[in-house]
């Protein structure tokens, strides 16, 4: 029964190099954190199931993109087939916060003709003494972008589950409302794998039931 899901969502994680995208994904999918993390080359792939309501699971296909400029031509091609994403900046790196507008503009341009739902993530919240962006400031930017905002730490496991769950629930509600539709030529949302109803062994071999032939 493990691998049963009602939908599959494809999500992308974007933001400047070193903001901590790969660490956030590794914490979410493998429960691990390392202080040394190589820059992503092009795009990496992760996957995980999340249970948004008891018994309702969604499979997430997660694309971890390289923040470095030289990989931009590769990473751009992943927007179109993503239904949602985490737009990540580093709370201790003001420039990564200032670049958010550029990331969003690029995403909007390359996702056409589809739509993408983002959650704004202020990462490395464990580094309290090095903070360069206040929560109030980030919340203002998020609301100007029409997004929710959350602060995370892969190192201390703060809001890692929550960030992916909030985004997944947000997308799920839009799918339920019909604001987002499954489309043949689009990988953003896929209908899930639902098994045939399995009868209990008692029901399947009811005593006294005769063969109809
Ligand atoms: N203190 C702290 N450091 C973190 C956290 N997450 C990541 N880091 C560190 O930040 C550095 C960069 O992390 P990565 O996850 O490789 O960054 P990235 O955004 O994937 O970078 P690119 O792949 O180049 O785009 C590494 O040294 C991590 O150990 C965190 O939550 N807290
Ligand atoms: Mg990376």
Automatic annotation (TrEMBL):
This is Ras-related protein Rab-39A. It comes from the Eukaryota. GO terms for molecular function: GTP binding; GTPase activity. Keywords: Autophagy, Cell membrane, Cytoplasmic vesicle, GTP-binding, Lipoprotein, Membrane, Methylation, Nucleotide-binding, Prenylation. It comes from Albula glossodonta (roundjaw bonefish). It is a lipid-anchor. Coiled coil: none annotated. Belongs to the small GTPase superfamily. Rab family. The keyword GTP-binding applies. The keyword Nucleotide-binding applies. It is found in: Autolysosome membrane; Cell membrane; Cytoplasmic vesicle membrane. GO terms for biological process: autophagy; Rab protein signal transduction. GO terms for cellular component: autolysosome membrane; cytoplasmic vesicle membrane; plasma membrane.
